[in-house]
Amino acid sequence: MTDVAETQTSLDRQIAKWQTFFDLLGEMDRGQLAKLRHSLSNRPAHFLTGTIYAAELEHSLKNDWQRAVLETVAGLFALIERPHDEQTEDEEVRREQRKRQPLGQLLGELHIAQNRKSGRKLDASSSIEKRFLALLDSDEYALPYQLRQAITLLDASEIKPDWSQLTNDLMFWQSRSGNRIRQDWSDAFYLVAEKEMRRIANLDSTNAQAPETPSEDTP
């Protein structure tokens, strides 16, 4: 097995563990989820220790920072997810499509949607972009607030992140890999508008080159 393949396999295993953790959160009763939501208000979710062990994550959390990140994302999960409500087929399809998508891409889609609705160029600055840049610039103290703002924006448009991918990315936020994660999110954010503008340009070019269909009244 090559180094790249081994790295991917290791990543897949870790993502699967995060997913197990969120699956277990989804099995919590409403009272437990309410307690988890309240943990976002400066009440550390230390009661998650049992769930962390059940998901075999005790060795994945290397320091207090990573534990705090997991507790924050778990609180956000409880804030916007409704695991006891039956999902529609469309919701399941959208959730499947979002797998492994970075948060930057989801916010990028929201960014161009806002610009399109406002009649601006797709790559024009927007309040979504400003919020995203504030998130990228967050240190360990500002991150919980900025992350909550970003997730709330997505939720308002019925967009939910891949919680496992988000958690895995955030684990590196304060490490040497943090700049790479920020760059990956940034690239994904701006690539959304770039791809859509390229698609529209190609469509316009195709339409311009298409021969006109003769009118029925043409002799």
UniProtKB/TrEMBL annotation:
Pfam families assigned: CRISPR_Cse2
The protein, known as: Type I-E CRISPR-associated protein Cse2/CasB
Species name: Deinococcus xinjiangensis
